[in-house]
């Protein structure tokens, strides 16, 4: 198996953990940690942690931090051949505050410069896309990069999935989403796409809405995560859909759960599992992630045996 190529960016997560009841208007004692992050980087590490072959096409910097990011991914089994080192602007920064329950209370993101990755795709894109079974693309960073990668994926007949960021490009270019093999998002992101407030929608109603709206979205399949209510999924080709309940889990840190869920779903589909079982795998990997204060979990070596 050639594996999956993840195309996106590295961020450094600056995480503030409140030591008591979090007050958004006052000073809060707690703990601050610097953690390797970025949705694409997280996905690449998650896939490597499950023992599946994965390569990461991204940028890094020639610094102690940048070198450490590359070394960590390589140590986890991720191929770093297509990680390009630049002098500055290669790594973004994401600052997040977690309240006393471990939930996100606020966040600010400073993106990296995308030009060097666009140049890498222009120079070696054919070689990169043709050599892998599937592509995971970070859509919300560069429209030019997205267009180039999606065109190459169509040329070589490769399925494409995406990690969702700020949704600016996703909302502006619905044709990008229509080109995806399966679109995974949460209920807030789905609400923005559909122009609806879905915050109080029950899973049964969400599934009915998904069946109604997926044709307009255009992708083959779609999964909507709903936190403690689980996830709903629907596949246009087969007409098969359903609801997967969440796994009761002690929450330590909710960040990275969505990235882990996507990783499990895409890897399940890449292994030839039906969407139902792929969503089960994503649910299990997300559950493992929120039980740790890292952005990625390290499941046991027999992880995939549970879903065959």
State the CATH topology of one domain.
UDP-N-acetylmuramoyl-L-alanine:D-glutamate ligase
In CATH, what is the homologous superfamily of one domain? Ribokinase
Which structural category do the helix and sheet elements fall into? alpha/beta
| Main sheet properties | 5 strands, parallel
CATH architecture of one domain: 3-Layer(aba) Sandwich
What is the β-strand count? 13
Can you count the helices?
Answer: 10
- Share of residues in strands: 25-35%
Major sheet: order of its strands? 5-4-1-8-9
Give structural attributes.
single chain, 308 residues, alpha/beta, UDP-N-acetylmuramoyl-L-alanine:D-glutamate ligase, 5-stranded parallel sheet, 4-stranded mixed sheet, 10 helices, globular
Could you explain how this protein is built, in words?
Helices cover 37% and strands 25% of the residues. The protein is an alpha/beta fold.
Overview in brief:
This protein has helices at residues 39-49, 64-75, 115-130, 143-156, 168-172, 174-178, 187-194, 203-217, 257-270, 275-289; strands spanning 4-7, 10-18, 30-37, 54-61, 83-86, 91-98, 104-110, 134-138, 160-163, 182-186, 221-225, 231-235, 240-244. With 308 residues, it is α/β, with parallel strands linked by helices. It has a domain at 4-180: UDP-N-acetylmuramoyl-L-alanine:D-glutamate ligase (3-Layer(aba) Sandwich), CATH 3.40.1190.20.
């Amino acid at each position: 198996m050639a594996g999956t190529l993840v195309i996106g960016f590295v961020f450094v997560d600056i995480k503030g953990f409140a030591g008591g009841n979090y007050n958004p208007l006052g000073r809060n004692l707690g703990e601050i940690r610097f953690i390797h992050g970025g949705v694409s980087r997280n996905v690449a590490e998650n896939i490597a942690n499950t023992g599946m072959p994965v390569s990461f096409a991204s940028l890094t910097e020639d610094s102690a931090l940048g070198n450490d990011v590359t070394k960590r991914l390589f140590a986890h089994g991720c191929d770093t051949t297509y990680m390009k080192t630049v002098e500055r602007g290669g790594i973004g920064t994401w600052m997040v505050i977690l309240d006393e329950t471990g939930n996100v209370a606020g966040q600010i993101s400073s993106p990296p410069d995308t030009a060097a990755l666009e140049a890498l795709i222009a120079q070696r894109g054919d070689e990169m896309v043709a050599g892998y079974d599937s592509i995971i693309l970070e859509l919300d960073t560069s429209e030019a990069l997205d267009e180039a990668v999606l065109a190459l994926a169509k040329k070589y007949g490769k399925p494409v999935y995406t990690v969702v960021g700020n949704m600016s490009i996703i909302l502006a270019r619905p044709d990008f989403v229509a080109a995806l093999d399966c679109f995974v998002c949460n209920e807030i992101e789905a609400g923005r796409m559909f122009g609806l407030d879905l915050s109080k929608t029950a899973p049964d109603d969400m599934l009915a809405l998904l069946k109604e709206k997926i044709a307009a979205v255009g992708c083959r399949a779609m999964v909507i995560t709903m936190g403690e209510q689980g996830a709903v999924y629907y596949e246009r080709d087969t007409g098969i859909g359903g609801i997967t309940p969440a796994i009761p889990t002690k929450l330590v840190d909710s960040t990275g759960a969505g990235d882990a869920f996507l990783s499990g779903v895409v890897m399940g589909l890449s292994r030839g599992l039906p969407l139902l079982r792929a969503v089960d795998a994503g649910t299990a990997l997300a559950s493992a992630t929120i039980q740790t204060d890292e952005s990625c979990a390290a499941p046991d070596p027999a992880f995939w045996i549970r879903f065959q």
